[in-house]
Design brief:
Order of helices and strands: EEEEEH
Number of strands: 5
Shape: elongated
Structural class: alpha+beta
């Protein structure tokens, strides 16, 4: 998917590409690659691990952005921490309805 992204809605919008490279509904995982805005490599792997009392959501991210890598990694930490709560709530709702078959 090709999109335009503007950091904080302040910086000029730039091209950004997101590509799903693997999806495994049986094992509740996906992997995506992303590039753009000075990011050479951003690979995201998400895995949902069923547990006795719910599920564990695991994000693994590899980032390569040259001299910007530290700043991009800090942005990633902020962004994923901020969206973790809503994702956990969605997972809880879906789990309660047996969407995942757990």
């Amino acid at each position: 998917m090709d999109v335009k992204v503007s950091m904080f809605g302040v910086l000029p919008a730039q091209s950004y590409r997101m590509e799903f490279i693997a999806f495994d509904p049986k094992n509740l995982t996906f992997t995506s690659n992303e590039v753009g805005m000075g990011i050479k490599h951003w690979q995201h792997r998400l895995c949902i691990v069923p547990r006795a009392n719910g599920a564990e959501l695991i994000d693994e991210i590899e980032i390569e952005a040259g001299w910007r890598t530290g700043m991009v990694a800090a942005w990633a930490r902020f962004m994923y921490a901020r969206r973790h709560g809503p994702r956990v709530r969605m997972l809880a709702v879906q789990s309660a309805y047996g969407v995942w078959g757990v």
